[in-house]
Design brief:
With 309 residues, this protein is mainly α. The protein contains ten helices and no strands. The chain has a single domain, classed as ABC transporter type 1, transmembrane domain (ABC transporter transmembrane region fold, Up-down Bundle), CATH 1.20.1560.10.
Length: 309
């Protein structure tokens, strides 16, 4: 709870600053476009059912009509996706500019840059602020999109096949738990990686003796090896999990299709809805490496805040 309060204090100032109106206006536009994208996704799911039903009954007129419907939906999706990304990037650079000004003022106001109480404050201002604002928006919007998609498609999947929704929930919970067990160490490793890299760059600027620089790089090397080994395990699990999720709905629904209880369109619609719900439920699992990186950056900025207050 304390860490969440600290993160809130790190994020809140911009949204209550002199730029709050433009920040909230951009946020509302992004959310509106996100809602539109989710709605288009629902329409595409129903379109998939109609397309495969047309193929099953060899109805060429219906098939070409559905291609026309897809063209309209695809165009709308491209436009909403493009402008959502554009507004997010505008919000990112404005937030970074504002935070950079605040951190520079704190760093310079009492000439604290002469004091050796913090490792690499220049990197925290130049790099960490950029990563923090970008990753905060990316992860929060991703979570919002996952939540909206989950709400929209859960109702659809429940209507089509209730037990498929329950299976998707169970599958995602197990996947997320295993991912956390494998990947939770990456937060500390990423924090150390940034510190070691910054120390080495600082040494290249200020030092010229090989026997001093070489030990600094050893820290980078050892830390990176640990990160890639842990990431390898995480990748093996998440890739296996994702590939298995593709075939499960077909395995479960195939008996009903072969017994002629459902049409081909129903099968494809269910598989698509299951995949969408499972992906939404697995957002934390699929974003675990990014969350670990973001958390390490946030901890460095919180450390900067504490030492400059």
């Amino acid at each position: 709870m304390e860490s969440l309060c600290s993160l809130y204090r790190l994020i809140k100032p911009y949204w209550s600053s002199e730029e709050k109106y433009s920040a909230w206006a951009l946020s509302v536009a992004i959310i509106a476009l996100n809602i539109a994208m989710v709605y288009i996704g629902v329409l595409l799911n129903w379109w998939r059912k109609d397309l495969f039903d047309a193929l099953q009954i060899l109805d060429s007129h219906a098939f070409y009509h559905q291609l026309g419907v897809f063209s309209v939906l695809a165009l709308l999706w491209v436009l909403t996706s493009t402008y959502r990304t554009y507004f997010k990037q505008v919000l990112h650079i404005r937030w970074r500019r504002w935070m950079t000004e605040q951190y520079l003022n704190k760093w310079l106001e009492n000439k604290v840059y002469y004091e050796d109480f913090m490792d690499n404050p220049d990197q925290r201002i130049a790099e960490d602020l950029d990563r923090f604002t970008d990753e905060t928006l990316t992860l929060s919007l991703g979570f919002l999109n996952a939540a909206m998609t989950l709400v929209s498609f859960s109702g659809l999947l429940w209507m089509i096949s209730p037990y498929m929704l329950l299976f998707a929930l169970f599958y995602a919970v197990i996947g997320t738990w295993v991912t956390h067990r494998i990947g939770h160490l990456l937060v500390g490793l990423n924090f150390d990686k940034q510190r070691y890299e910054a120390d080495f760059r600082f040494g290249l600027v200020c030092l010229r003796e090989k026997n001093i620089l070489k030990p600094r790089f050893i820290f980078i090397f050892d830390n990176f090896l640990t990160i890639i080994k842990r990431t390898k395990l995480l990748s093996l699990w998440t890739y296996s999990y994702s590939q298995a999720a593709i075939v499960f709905p077909y395995l479960i629904m195939a008996p009903r299709f072969f017994s002629r209880d459902i049409q081909l369109g129903d099968l494809m619609q269910t598989a698509s809805a299951f995949s969408t719900v499972e992906t939404s439920l697995s957002y934390v699992m699929n974003s675990y490496a990014s969350i670990a990186s973001w958390q390490s950056v946030a901890e460095r900025l919180l450390d900067f805040e504490q030492k400059n207050n």
